[in-house]
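INPUT
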Amino acid sequence: MRRGLIEKDSFMKSNQIRFFTRREFITRGLGIVAVATTIPSFLARAAFAVEGSANAPLLGVNRDGKVLVVIQLSGGNDGLNTVIPFSHDAYYRARPSLAVAKENVLRVTDDIGLHPNLAPLKELYDAGKLAVIQGVGYPNPDRSHFRSMEIWQSGITDGFETTGWIGRMFDHTCNNTHLNPDSRSAVGSGETRGLLGSPTLGVSIDEILNPALNCNCSVGVALRDPEQFYRMTRVSARAEKSKEGGTPSTVASQIDFLRRTAMNAEVSADRIRRSVRSVQTKTDYPKEPFAQGMKLIAAMIAGGMDTRVYYISLGGFDTHANQQGAHERLLKTLAEGIGAFQKDLEALGQAERVLGFTFSEFGRRVAENGSRGTDHGQAAPMFVFGKTVKPGVIGPHPSLEDLNGGDLKFKTDFRQVYATALEKWMEVDSSKILSQKFDPLPFVA
Amino acid sequence: MADTTPDPTDWTRNKASHLLFRAGFGGKPGEIDDFAKRGLSASLDALLSGPTRELPVPAWLEEDKKLDPRQLRMMSKEEKQKLQMIARQHMREMVGGWVKFMMDAPTPADMLHERMVFFWHGHFATSVQKVQATPFVYNQLKLFHDKSLGNFGDLLHAIVRDPAMLRYLDNDQNRKGKPNENLARELMELFSLGVGNYTEDDIREGARALTGWGIEPYQFVFRPRAHDDGEKTIFGKKGNFDGDQFTNLILEQPACAEFMARKLWVYFASENPKKEVIHELASKFRESKYDIKTLLRAVFSHPEFYSPEVIGSQIKSPIQLVVGTARTLGLTASKLELYGRMLLMMGQVPYAPPNVKGWPGGRTWIDTSRLVTRYTFAEIIAKGRIPSEIDPRQQGDAELVQNEMPAEMDRETKTEEPREQRKQLSKGQRKTMLPRNLRVDFDASKLAGAQLSVEETVDKITRLLLPVAPSEGERKNLVKTLEKNLADSPREEALQILVGQIMLLPAYQLC
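OUTPUT
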């Protein structure tokens, strides 16, 4: 049934009576946070931060910690038209309509160069802020988007794993000093286990948490727009949060868990919004969602968030037909986004703390198909960027002739990249997270 | 059979409500009254009486079946793209239709049946992300519809021949001399026995038994030339086993009944069952030769099922939450995609499980973003629309009433994002945009008669919607708000707001 205009009005009015105002929530909601003994200490700290002025620094937050930015290229990026083996005739033979002419390639070595639309990345390379890892993949490659992405996100190649590789890093480190020096004060057992660690340690620039961040310790927040996320959390913030009494212990513990998760969301949203609002960026970013996501990450880094891993994705790389225009635009979007981000971080004085890398679930077939596109392949290159990156080209390029079912054979295991990021950059033990030891790569100085 | 039916004098309205929450999607007021009156045994008879409906056959199914995947290769790109677009649309219709079918369940028996169909879908998980053709998915759904309350042995045999499963776990590529172990492994690890009850050798030999079990194009086919008919050793037994005999050997393992009893207990009752309870259920299941109704009856009549540790302690899956809310309240949404978007953002799209293990459930349903979505859902129900404060793309009320746009126009102006920018959003991002100009309605005045006092109204509706009583503070707040709202606005609206407020309590996420 439809409501008329007048009824709507009274509906709105009654609504205002029902709910607390935002200010009231902050007073009421956090009043409860401050007195409740079961709330993790980071929340209590956040409460102080919120109670202070909008410009007050967030207390107890490790603002100088190293930050990792992971860029997921969804759909299977054509590695051969990204990092181009221009000195090989086999490349030109395999790609009669798609090959990038030798003279247009932005040369990196005598053998390989970047696609002309990756000029901002070439600039980073020349400035010693970019490494290229060639031929990355894993044993027994799977050509299904779904399965291969799952392998990259979980960091586990055999069997099925619910947690992601970044999520497991949080699971293994929530209780120690590596990621959050203050979390030791919150160490508990039993019911409090799994509720430690600040939820904003991992942030996914997306509507839902990227599976790579799935964990057992309640870390991880997904958002695309801090203002929208903040507005959505106000809904639960207005609900009554009085302590439950007299319910059986299993129910009480579930209610407690739900309440804390809601508070995590509310506090995270508030923190993120304030940190982003506190940063005035002078760098121009392209208008596209990807670049705007990178801008948001830069603002969160500079705004004093405690986030250690940011995850963002760019889709559309599944170029089975008429690849050229679409792929070129995506490379431009990617490179301009990263270029602006790096420039911004330097202007904001944050560049030393940040390392980023790109990956895709697989590369594409060496030979183009009959529709001027390319089909699902295997090994592909990755970019690592950042001020402290050890620049260069890492690992051999896979042969263009010795193929596996028409695809490049991998030379470097992607878990070596993860192990390096975990050990050398995040300074955590990677062997438990990846369930074995992998040889690190020389991209962290 | 030992009688585990709790003392009939123990049977209360609360327990009837608990049974309907767990064995269904929550009872409607009349259903709870009816079960409370009947007592446990007669309630279980009603619950287990089987579905009253047939699974509807989609109008386009026969057309889709005619589409041989091999023909696709010969088509032009344009033809192919067109067909793929239609196929995706059909798939959305089918999955969305299933969710609607659950919401429309006319009786508690239909609810339990749907909960079981979903259980088997999660247990024998298959994803449309790999199995893309609609005939595959329809056949499997029909299999679950027909056999979900039958015999587990029959079901296991059927799933090993199910084309969607053969495709999903690559058994169409399992050939003599080039075995693919995917199905053999999951058949034992996830579908019947659990880790530790078979060896790697059993997997290798079982995979040989399954060679040649393929599909053509959407039906099971046995390819004798691809089948390895040599001798195999499985669970220490030797023979020239084929896929059926391999399945029989699995069903002979004592671990099978334990594994299934445990899995169903976790689904319906609690995450950490006592060992004795599982042994007890498993031995009944074994004695009945895998009769699923016998096992369910044992679960729903076990005293442990009605213990205070179990009642109200389960986190609702997104399907339970969304379907249950819609069914209990009798919701009508002007745009059905609301439900799909909500399920996606809450992390459970039917026929898109995260992997072959299905949805892990429990606390993994909840993280900050997913919980915020659950509360947003509550807000949408309370307001009957998506509030512009949550999504500023939504129009204000006055505009909405004056400029009601026809549906086709709405589609074109769905987003303010320029085309180029919209393209760059991943598929997932586009799917999570909330529909515009949505209306959600239900007749809240039906939930409590006008003769009831404010307190009685709050108690009546909380008893219907929550598995446990609200705390004193929560109740006081609900009463206070309802009093004020009744003074200012029509009863129906005041009650609608009350429902939304109850849905914002953490206990609404539980059942």
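end of record. Chain B touches chain A through 79 residues (CB under 8 Å).
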